[in-house]
Design goal:
Strand content: 15-25%
Shape: elongated
Distance between the termini: 75 Å
Largest sheet: 7 strands, antiparallel
Structural class: alpha+beta
Number of domains: 2
């Protein structure tokens, strides 16, 4: 039987994200979505994949798109006062751009055809900074090859993209708005030194907020399927810390570094780390990095090249010893 009411083909899909909604081929859909919302535009999915108590994936083969219904988002939606019901838990969309369909993070459920949809935010291509973008209530992640980062607006989408609806918990507005000040940030040449500083500011002094928690992170980015009991480095968490900007205003608060295998930051990067390998060893540090912290006078570090880094610490006037 022929249908005389054909929807636009997947190659003609135009999707614009704004605030808490998306406009798909002229039809506005407010999040959180239900399957019925999507079917009103695209029809029924080609495949449905369920993983009990974890997710339901609705796969559109020709569109190269997967919509994910995730129960894990429910509590957050309730905190944000946007929860509707258990049918409206569809919060993540995966677009499989590229010449061929490739998994983003090892997932087995894939559409058959690459995505050709045109995605925009407020009518323009999304602007990515280190593969990340946020507009309204949406987090964008561009899945570029490992070790590379994309910055700017892409002319053509060449890499898979996930867009997750994750609204912020609303707080009462302050009576007066503080003046906007141009923020200056610390600069780091070596990641492990940056991690040591984050440990001090985020977990020891509790001034760098919000404190990163691998369990909250895995819930927010449920599409990443993060193993919170992993014995290996959780790459998305590492990327978070790589991209984290730290205001210079905190530099004077750092007086001592105390590295230890049980530091919270390491447990959030390798949840089941035993502290026996050299993953987080501080084997390189620059004088320029150290000079940013005028009150840093003492450091206890993990290092397999201690004599090498000791010399740099000494030049900066910092007493350093091994754990």
């Amino acid at each position: 039987m022929f249908s005389f009411f054909k929807k636009k083909g997947p190659k003609n899909l135009e999707i614009n994200f704004h605030d808490n909604s998306m406009v798909m081929n002229g039809i506005s859909l407010s999040f959180p979505l239900s399957l019925k919302d999507i079917e009103a535009v695209l029809g029924k999915p080609d495949h449905v994949v369920k993983k009990e108590n974890k997710y339901i994936k609705y796969i559109y083969d020709n569109a190269g798109i997967i919509f994910e219904h995730s129960p894990s988002i429910q509590n957050h939606l309730k905190k944000c006062r946007v929860y509707i019901d258990d049918e409206h838990l569809l919060s993540t969309i995966s677009f499989y751009y590229g010449d061929v369909v490739k998994p983003m993070f090892g997932e087995e459920e894939l559409p058959k055809m690459p995505c050709q949809a045109v995605v925009s935010t407020d009518g323009k291509p999304p602007y990515f900074l280190y593969d990340r973008h946020r507009t309204g209530d949406f987090n964008f992640i561009l899945w570029t090859p490992h070790g590379t980062n994309f910055n700017g607006r892409p002319d053509v989408m060449r890499y898979p993209l996930t867009i997750s609806y994750y609204p912020e918990i609303k707080h009462e507005r302050q009576k007066s708005n503080p003046k906007v000040v141009q923020e200056k940030y610390l600069r780091f040449d070596n990641l492990n030194f940056k991690l040591a500083i984050i440990q001090v500011l985020m977990y020891d002094l509790e001034v760098l907020k919000p404190a990163f928690d691998i369990f909250d992170f895995s819930e927010e980015f449920s599409e990443l399927d993060i193993d919170t009991e992993s014995t290996e480095l959780v790459e998305p968490a590492l990327e978070y810390f790589k991209n984290l900007q730290i205001s210079q205003k905190y530099a004077s608060l750092v007086k001592e570094i105390d590295m230890d295998g049980g530091n919270e930051i390491f447990m959030n990067l390798i949840p089941q780390w035993d502290g026996e390998d050299s993953t987080f060893d501080l084997n390189e540090v620059s004088l320029a990095e150290l000079k940013q912290f005028p009150n840093l006078k003492q450091a206890t570090i993990m290092s397999s090249k201690f004599e090498q880094v000791k010399e740099i610490f000494s030049k900066a006037g910092v007493d350093v010893e091994l754990v």
